[in-house]
Specification:
The protein has about 350 residues and is α/β, with parallel strands linked by helices. It is built from 13 helices and 14 strands. The chain folds into two domains: about 160 residues, Rossmann fold (3-Layer(aba) Sandwich); about 180 residues, Dihydrodipicolinate Reductase, domain 2 (2-Layer Sandwich). It is globular, with a radius of gyration of 19 Å. The structure holds NADP nicotinamide-adenine-dinucleotide phosphate.
Length: about 350
């Protein structure tokens, strides 16, 4: 199979670098175009991308000249790691010009005609694309992935829909890498917990219900979610404690079995980035932990552990996922893999 040429909008940023690194060894996609702001335009990628990843900068991208984000230039398929302050206008202009934009930014996530995609959960939400094109007059399309903490919560809840979730209370312990670079000042976070992440609780509460919903997310899942979001001194990995109340009364063994056997389209199709299994159910009393478990499934698996009865709700557990892989670039690449497998690229 010939590789599919892809471009990256916001290629110089933290998420853009993750795209460059992960796509350098992708079996289906080949990066042929890098774009960022006027500040970087016309310069070599290695000169303007302050490399923050442990893996070396791929040589093919290092010597590429960064271009401006001009719609109509670059390949049909573009990944976006653009800053949210500019992503709305630029991504919309690219979709109007015929590009398929696979975005990480928050701007279009809650648009009723834009899929907020987690391929294991709501692959059917891609059916929105036909209506998206006709209603918005775009010849291209936009598909988004969720916020980095939402994706962990939604994955852990997806197997439990069979028990009719009524209410969820989630408290997060979120890594500093989720705030980008340089992110939270060291004097704010070392030896400390910051009990506020702007906009994060609202995103977890609304995005989760769209993802688990029907009709492309336009009929949100009928449950109530309450989120407490905290920043902690962890480098990578968002950990969260989750309590869930159900309309039905499953046993804890039934809940465990639902989590253990959960899989979706990426696993059926053996997509290149699909973790097998997508959720690892840990049985040790003190797992999952970010330092030990964040890289499961190449950073694409969610771990769930400490599953037990809750005297207030029904069941409670701990969930963990890699915020910059499963919560950002890795999620977008899995979205693109699903779209390619479904002949939507
Ligand atoms: P970042 O490091 O600040 O990178 C922002 C990128 O946007 C850079 O490539 C920058 O290019 C480009 N940009 C800024 N203004 C521009 C303009 N006017 N025109 C064209 N390009 C422009 O941000 P990030 O942390 O990678 O986050 C990117 C997006 O992903 C955000 O929407 C964020 O909310 C989302 N996200 C981030 C994470 C994370 O872990 N960091 C996780 C999930 C989602 P220059 O270098 O040329 O300025």
């Amino acid at each position: 199979m010939d590789a599919i040429e892809v471009g990256i909008l916001g290629a110089t940023g933290v998420v853009g670098q993750q795209f460059v690194s992960r796509l350098a060894r992708h079996p289906w996609f080949r990066v042929t175009w890098l774009a960022a702001s006027e500040r970087s335009q016309g310069k070599l990628y290695r000169e303007v991308a302050p490399w923050r990843l442990a893996a070396p900068m791929p040589g093919t991208s290092a010597e590429r000249t960064v271009e401006a984000c001009v719609p109509g230039k670059g390949p049909k398929v573009v990944f976006s790691g653009l800053d949210a302050s500019v992503a709305g206008d630029i991504e919309g202009a690219f979709a109007a010009a015929g590009h398929i934009v696979i975005s990480n930014a928050r701007n279009f996530r809650m648009d009723p005609l834009v899929p907020l995609l987690i391929p294991e959960i709501n692959a059917d939400h891609l059916k929105l694309l036909g209506e998206q094109r006709s209603s918005k007059g775009w010849t291209g399309a936009i598909v988004t992935n969720p916020n980095c903490s939402t994706i962990v919560l939604a994955m852990s809840l997806a197997p439990l829909r069979t028990f009719n979730i009524r209410a969820v209370v989630v408290s997060t312990m979120q890594a500093v890498s989720g705030a980008g670079y340089p992110g939270v000042p060291s004097l704010d976070i070392l030896g400390n917990v910051v009990p506020f992440i702007g906009g994060e609780e609202e995103k977890m509460q609304s995005e989760t219900l769209k993802i688990l919903g029907t009709d492309g997310g336009r009929a949100p899942y009928q449950a109530v979610v309450s989120a407490h979001c905290n920043r902690v001194a962890v480098v990578d990995g968002h950990t969260m404690t989750v309590s869930v109340d159900f309309h039905s009364r499953p046993s804890i063994e039934d809940v465990a079995e639902a989590i253990r056997t959960f899989a979706g389209r990426p696993q059926e199709l053996w997509l290149p980035s699909a973790p097998q299994p997508p959720i690892v159910l840990t049985t040790e009393p003190n797992r999952p932990q970010p330092r030990l478990d964040v890289d499961l499934g190449g950073g694409m698996a969610i771990s769930v552990g400490r599953l037990r009865s809750c005297p207030v709700m029904h069941a409670k557990f701990v969930a963990l996922g890699h915020n910059t892989i499963r919560g950002a670039a890795g999620a977008a690449i899995l979205n693109a893999e699903l779209m390619h497998a479904e002949a939507l690229l």
